[in-house]
Design brief:
Elements (H helix, E strand, L loop, with lengths): L3 E2 L3 H33 L4 H21 L3 E6 L4 E10 L3 E6 L4 E5 L3 E7 L17 E12 L10 E10 L4 E11 L3 E12 L5 E14 L3 E4 L2 E6 L1 E15 L2 E20 L5 E19 L1
Length: 293
């Protein structure tokens, strides 16, 4: 786990630096302004011209001196502290004041390197637009199949992952796999189709999926009864909402109607009688997960 010390306060702090630089520049500018009458009186003689070039050089020097780099302390944990180094002992420790005004103390053994680098504070920089890109995507979600409280399986748990491709028209096609806990554990294999209604960082979409669920444990015994499970078709249609929180990552919420059919056979040991039953699920499927593009 690592972090970079940065906060809104550093922008204000940086603003104070700019104000100080403006005051520093105002001194030679003020003197230059006062020199204008003198230049007229001396009719732009050689002395006045030399003074003019001297003041221009002072202004340029003040500008260069004000454009200083920010100290960076890189820790071995991967964290980065930016600010102004207050104290450094090459064999013991380093003390740095970050851009928020906080003081940090680190042992030299915890430090990877110390540099002075330009740092972009964010003023005048346009924030990157958060949009859903076309290309390969991964959608992983947790959910449950909500049903009546009278059912034996009230809300079976579901974990699904879809890998697919989103084109420039907002259509995503993918292949999904997962695990669902119905009468026994099943592995659904399905085709997933989605269509985005809008562009932007919050995108509603319609979706449909269809496939087949395979039992992960086909046989089991309980008392004098043997159970044999078989799979069945699945299908779902619904709507969802993708909310992009940062580049290449979004939260994914889905609400669907879900159909699932499975079956199992009971074999009684004492008379070898077989009875086959079909489980049909007509459920509301609620899902929450993440989307990576």
């Amino acid at each position: 786990m690592h972090f970079e010390v940065d906060c809104f306060a550093h922008k204000m702090h940086d603003g104070h630096h700019r104000l100080r630089r403006s005051r520093n520049l105002s001194i030679p500018i003020f003197i230059l302004w006062k020199m204008i009458p003198e230049l007229k009186e001396e009719s732009m003689n050689k002395i006045a011209i030399e003074r003019l070039f001297l003041m221009i050089a002072l202004i340029a020097s003040a500008t260069l001196l004000s454009a200083q780099d920010v100290d960076h302390v890189y820790l071995k944990t991967g964290s980065v502290i930016r600010g102004n180094i207050k104290e450094i002992d090459p064999v013991d420790h380093v003390k740095i004041e970050d851009l928020c005004g906080n003081i940090w103390y680190y042992k030299i053994g915890d430090v990877e390197k110390i540099t002075a680098e330009p740092y972009q504070t964010g003023f005048g920089v346009e924030k990157e637009s958060l949009v859903f890109n076309h290309g390969f995507v991964n959608m992983t979600s947790l959910g449950f199949l909500a049903g009546s409280s009278n059912n034996m399986q009230v809300a079976p748990f579901s974990l699904l992952m879809v890998n697919g491709y989103r084109n420039s028209l907002g259509i995503t096609t993918g292949i999904g796999v997962g695990i669902e806990f119905l009468s026994t554990n099943y592995m659904p294999l399905f085709l997933d189709l989605r269509y985005d209604f809008l562009d932007g960082d919050v995108v509603p979409y319609a979706m449909a999926k269809g496939g087949y669920s395979l039992p992960l444990s086909s046989d089991r015994s309980e008392y004098d009864i043997d159970y044999s499970y078989t799979g069945g078709p699945l299908g779902a249609v619904g709507i969802g909402l993708k909310i992009k929180s940062r580049s290449h990552f979004a939260w994914d919420i889905g609400l669907m109607y879900r159909y699932q059919k499975t079956s199992y056979t009971e074999i009684y040991d004492w008379n070898q009688q077989e009875y086959t039953y079909a489980d049909v699920y007509n459920r509301i499927e609620i899902r929450l997960g993440f989307y990576i593009d």
